[in-house]
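I hope you will forgive my troubling you with a question about protein structure. Could you please explain, in whatever detail you think fit, how the structure tokens follow from the sequence? Thank you for your consideration; the sequence and its tokens are set out here.
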Amino acid sequence: MSIIESRDFIESVADALQFISCYHPLDYIQAVGWAWEREQSPAAKDALAQILVNSRMAAEGRRPVCQDTGIVVAFLEIGMEARFEPGADLENLVNEAVHRAYTDPNNPLRASVVAPPYGRRRNTGDNTPAVIHTRLVPGDKVRIKLAAKGGGSENKSRFAILNPGADLVQWVLETVPTLGAGWCPPGILGIGIGGTAEKAMLLAKESLMAPVDIQELQTRGPADWREELRLELYEKVNALGIGAQGLGGLTTVVDVKILAHATHAASLPVALIPNCAATRHIEFELDGSGPAEFTPPDLEQWPKVAWQPGDDAREVDLQRLTREEIARWKPGERLLLSGRMLTGRDAAHRRIQQLLERGEPLPVDFRDRFIYYVGPVDPVGDEVVGPAGPTTATRMDGYSEMMLGELGLMGMIGKAERGPEAIEAIRRHKAVYLIAVGGAAYLVSKAIRKARVVAFEDLGMEAIYEFEVEKMPVMVAVDSRGESVHQQGPKEWRVKISQIGKPA
């Protein structure tokens, strides 16, 4: 029998969460490196390079790989012969660890959790409470699997109960394109099959904790139906041509994971949950001998990739930019932005809308300015701002007409595609939508020279900032005519992939 001391448990979980905020799993980052080596799409290859360089920068600086440091998901396997200290509350132990990890002054992690989930949605301030799943197993040890799941990928979770004779592969191939690029591919697809509705979702989430091994599986061949299905889905999902950041390319997923459970004869429950370019998970064990220790990875094993903006990148002065100039930009064009921009996310847009409805003045003037959809991490040391990568722009689609038409905004910066409503507003008002690379938050933050809160400070990371940037790398995603790179790129690469290997 082992005795697990509360302080050891808390310290281990807190240290693990700090660890995964800065260090990608080596298997994942090497898989992205392999994807970069073989990528033929220039746009996707550039995005992959930014992700790889950002990963090394975050590891060296011990700062988060992404500004969205996730909601904590804990899978706890408690040995039946293990004992905790008298009076210990397992849920409270996990949440105390989360509190310590996310408020660590040396590397504060972004608080993204709100409660209640509907209505007032106030930020809890320390990312608690965690989502906890507990299982009793034989033995006297406690095995802990942790993930910090970003909202962009979590929002793309899908579930269906198919007919028993349905084609599961076809469902996945029809579903993945509907996810858009908000989950920041290339990533990993977790698929849960069977059980009941909640079991399938849990299987999909837990499958994402396993190491990337699809290349090994391809080499040795499948041993069972699940491995056969993994290989088939890996090949066919990548053949969709979605590519890194949804720009079109050879690699959309670096692995497909599947867990399964027996199910009712009348049902075929299927869950799909993607992991993003900020894949964060870890597994460790406590045996009563003290806290777990985590050794930083050897960065010599990281892919040897450098990134610099291309010679074709256009330098843009935001203070002198005119609508006549943005009218000349084309989808896929690379830009380096310098000057002042505003920031804003869901809560800020909602509050702006409420002020307008009440006829009250706005705290900032948006006319002929750019807004960056971001919720940055708090700075440390001499940082102006912490990691500050883009959030999914699609969530702001419903506010596009208000911001572009009523308030005169010139352009927007985020990640992923825009929907028809937003694209039409962009076209109608001759505006533009730009993207930064999701998964390159620390790299992007280095372009931010000044940052100050200018409105809605009570919203925390969702407050409106004014950033002063210097050569911030972005790409034109939707031009002033309403042409979208996210529509053109995957369509083009689906055709190219179908032709690869065919005789001329």
Q: What stands out?
A: The two ends are 68 Å apart (CA to CA). The chain has a mean pLDDT of 96. The longest helix spans residues 42-61.
